[in-house]
Automatic annotation (TrEMBL):
This is Tyrosine-type recombinase/integrase. Keywords: DNA recombination. It holds the Pfam family DUF6538. Residues 290-490 form the Tyr recombinase domain. InterPro entries: DNA_brk_join_enz (IPR011010), DUF6538 (IPR046668), Integrase-like_cat_sf (IPR013762), Integrase_catalytic (IPR002104).
Length: 507
């Protein structure tokens, strides 16, 4: 028999709706019948629809008798042999019936269904209390490994711990940098500690929100301060010590984003039907927008007029200059070799790349591979002269003063970042109204100056080493640079940084 088009889907749940015949509508005072079926698979929804159709068809035939519509409904629904479906239909009827439910409650008590079916009813708004309703939990908890979310493919009954193990094994094969990989491991480990080792497809939006609320209490530097990697223990110790928690940006851009990536991958592997963390990262914005804002022109002039630049220029001076004139990340600059300076279109460029033979180098993402032209200001300051003098000393790297860390998994920026931050904070203070004083804000300043100078948005993405998600960004150059882009780089206007632009050539 062909099923009428009476079921529809919202999010991951199926619903039933049937218009009441006009003659019956006058009697029952209902225009239609709407039920939440509490199932996510179309096959199960169609099966329930058949039972509901049968019940309503027989109810409509006897509506004109002395019995009330509610009495008729309970009488015929009792004929259903499947107890689980029977409870489901009655429960849905209770929470959608516009008339009084008093009669139904009496019948439910007589039939021994009251405790299982009548749990909570709000006569004012008739909304379903999803958190306290026992019946819904009973239905959703039944053999979840066999829930038919997709008629053609059942979900895999995969535990979170096993899924994390497989996921991290795959992530480690991507050669991600040590810092990023560490955050991925920590985020999934914390999620497991908070939720317990349940099935992946059992994690819903309530669980995701619980994780977010817990992560917000995570202490800064928990392992180094409290010597524990258990998040619940660390939070308790942190609250007792009244120390600060991690920043919203770290929560959203770090932990929650990585959890979202994990569930996206689990969805691809058919271990779950949806990603409960999909939209949560973007909602964690409290305080994040004021973090790592660009430096002001006054701050930049204060940096480059500092007494540090009256000394002989070395790694610290050039790292600050390159931070504003290239927008490159700390590690990208520290790992530069002399061979990474190449000529393109008659001008020297930094070629930020990690070759297969260069095990001591790393890139944050594949999009980080790029050419960055020498701005004319960098040439005027004499950076090439500095490079040539260093090259004569026989070192491989330009900034060889920063020794490679003993831990091979760490990159060059792990130790140097602390040094350059101390220098910046001596110049500008520990923080300003926009947030902490850190080296990475020079990169944000470079991006802001590109924007203010009218650099094409697609070229901005290229010079930043970011991917352009817009459709136009999927076409054109990806890792090479055109002559037009090279020449346009000089259009970035640094003239307001007078302490730098009016400085004589460094000898």
């Amino acid at each position: 028999m062909r099923i009428p088009n009476r079921i529809y889907r919202r999010s991951d749940t199926w619903y039933y709706r049937r218009r009441t015949p006009s003659a019956i509508a006058k009697l029952s005072r209902r225009k239609d019948y709407k039920f939440c079926l509490h199932v996510s698979g179309m096959k199960e929804a169609r099966r329930l629809a058949m039972f509901i159709d049968d019940v309503l068809d027989r109810s409509f035939l006897t509506m004109k008798k002395e019995k009330t519509p509610t009495e008729t409904f309970i009488e015929y629904v009792e004929q259903i042999t499947d107890e689980e479906i029977k409870k489901n239909i009655i429960n849905s009827y209770i929470h959608n019936q516009e008339a009084t439910v008093a009669t139904l409650e009496i019948f439910a008590k007589q039939k021994g269904l009251y405790e299982d079916v009548i749990t909570q009813y709000d006569d004012n708004n008739r909304t379903l209390d999803r958190k306290n309703l026992k019946l819904e939990r009973e239905i959703l908890e039944r053999n979840k490994s066999q829930v038919d979310y997709n008629p053609s493919q059942k979900l895999k009954p995969l535990k979170i711990s096993k899924a994390i193990e497989k996921h991290l094994e795959w992530e480690k094969g991507r050669n991600l940098d040590y810092k990023t990989m560490g955050k991925k491991v920590a985020s999934l480990k914390y999620m497991l500690q908070i939720l317990g080792d349940k099935h992946v497809h059992e994690v819903d939006t309530d669980d995701a929100e619980k994780v977010v609320l817990t992560i917000k209490k995570l202490p800064r530097h928990m392992q180094s301060i409290f010597k524990t990697d258990n998040i619940l223990e660390g939070i308790k110790l942190n609250e007792e010590a009244q120390k600060p928690t991690i920043k919203p940006k770290t929560i959203g851009d770090g932990y929650i984003t990585f959890m979202g990536y994990f569930f996206k991958e689990m969805k691809r592997k058919r271990a779950t039907s949806y990603n409960p963390f999909e939209t949560l990262a973007s909602k964690i914005t409290d305080g994040a927008s004021t973090y790592r804002e660009p430096y002001t022109i006054d701050q930049l002039n204060a940096i480059f007029s500092d007494k540090l630049f009256d000394e002989e220029w070395g790694i610290h001076q050039w790292m600050l200059v390159l931070g504003i004139l290239t927008g490159a990340r700390t590690n990208e600059l520290l790992q530069l070799r002399y061979t990474d300076i190449v000529m393109k279109h008659g001008r020297p460029h930094f070629f930020l790349i990690k070759k297969d033979t260069e095990s001591d180098k790393s890139l944050k993402t594949p999009n980080s591979k790029r050419f960055v032209p020498f701005h004319k200001l960098l040439l005027d300051l004499g950076f090439l002269d500095y490079v040539n003098r260093k090259k004569e000393l026989g070192h491989d790297r330009i900034f060889h003063e920063e020794a490679a860390p003993k831990n091979e998994e760490l990159n060059l920026s792990n130790n140097y970042s602390k040094t350059i931050i101390r220098i910046l904070r001596r110049m500008l203070g520990k923080e300003d109204e926009y947030g902490p004083i850190v080296y990475y804000r020079l990169r944000h300043t470079f991006i802001e100056m590109m924007r203010e100078s009218g650099i094409d948005i697609n070229h901005q993405y290229y010079f930043e080493g970011h991917t352009n998600s817009h459709i136009s960004g999927r076409y054109g150059r990806k890792s090479d640079i055109s002559e037009f882009m090279t020449n346009a780089f000089d259009n970035i206007n640094f003239n307001k940084i007078e302490a730098l632009t009016k400085r004589p050539r460094v000898i």
